[in-house]
Amino acid sequence: MPKQRWTIVVVPPEAGETKSMRISLTWLRVGFGLLAVCALMAVGVGYAAVSRAVALSQLDRLERRNELLAQELTEAEQILATVTDSIAQIQERDRTMRLLAGLIPTDPDVQQAGIGGPIGEYSDEERRLAEGAAGQRVLNLRVDLDGLVRRANILATSFGVALDTLGSRVDHLRRTPSIEPADGFKISHFSDQRMHPIHHVVLPHEGLDIVADVGAPVHAPARGRVERIFSNGGYGLMVVIDHGVDPMGRRVKTRYGHLSTASVRVGQSIDRGDKIAEVGESGVVTGPHLHYEVLINGAAVDPMNYILPKVIVD
Questions:
Q1: What helix, strand, coil percent values describe the chain, rounded to 5?
Q2: CA distance 222 to 307
């Protein structure tokens, strides 16, 4: 069978000689194949160029993101350093608070809130992070932040204990008699034996006598509650204040005698310095004055031990 041939006729656009070319089907197929190969090569080169451009663009974005990440990590590390310094300052305040509350300061090693035990295995995420410098910085930040959280929890607990103890201590101080109940001259002190000025017999004197004018104010020497207002033959009109229990568990009360009038009522809460009565000369007396007693678990003690010179513990 004779080979098939194609005739290609080239006709010029204007007057001129027409040219023709005969080509076999085989060469025509070869030509089209070469054109197809060239087209594919052009497409491949174009795709590679576009891919390279996209990769370069993504790389540029990744580099910018890494730069931003590095900046964020640096700022986070600076913030963590600032918080660490603040925690250290708070720990010093905690030490002062515990000393004021009468507590032993927390051991510095305990304040560091260290942990131990097996290291364990990294998670997949942590392993991927540890492969790069930035990821390692992130892991270090996590460790430091966990440590700060533990230290903050220890501080919160310590502060709570110190505040509760200090509050109780302050309340005890407010309930401890510490001032003179009246302005005047001290003429007769606490004594196991004293010659009674009227009966002329030796008797214990369980309080302190303060000479003052009738009507002079009598002030509470500490916080408390009015327990009794009554008349006693020898001490005349009396007021008793219950100041509660001291740190050693002892009941503290104060008692006032020879009053002209009471300025409070039974059950009333009073603070240090509040007026509770007025000086008088009721009962068995030689002149107006205040008889003042301090009772510890019902037993009279020297009131001078509970009078601080011009100092109010409040």
A1: 40, 25, 30
A2: 11
Distance CA(177)–CA(218), nearest Å, equals 14
Interacting residues of 189 by C-beta distance below 8 A, sequence separation 6+? 205, 208, 209, 302, 304
pLDDT tens per residue across span 90-116: 777 777 777 666 677 776 666 665 544
Joined together, the tokens standing for residue 204 give: 């214990």
What is the distance of C-alpha 157 from the center of its chain? 9
- C-alpha 283/C-alpha 259 separation (Å) is 9
Helix (H, G, I), strand (E, B) or coil at 304: helix
Contact 258, 282 (CB under 8 A): yes
List the one residue out of 285, 270, 260 whose CA is nearest residue 209. 285
At residue 78, φ and ψ (nearest 5 deg) are: -65, -45
| Alpha helices for 17-175 (secondary structure H) | 25-100, 108-111, 124-130, 133-174
Write the CATH number of the domain with boundaries 185-306: 2.70.70.10
All residues at 6 or more sequence positions from 142 whose CB lies less than 8 Å from its CB, including other chains: none
Q: What is the pLDDT of residues 56-76, one digit of tens each?
A: 666 566 666 666 677 767 777
Q: What is the 3-state secondary structure (H, E, C) of 58-85?
A: HHHHHHHHHHHHHHHHHHHHHHHHHHHH
| The token pair that represents 238 in the structure block | 């009396």
Token pair 């004197």: residue? 205
The contacts of residue 176 (CB under 8 Å, 6+ apart) are 222, 243, 246, 252, 306, 313
* Interatomic CA distance for residues 124 and 292, integer angstroms: 79
Whether residue 251 contacts residue 245, with contact meaning beta carbons closer than 8 Å, is answered with yes
Q: What is the pTM assigned to this prediction?
A: 0.54
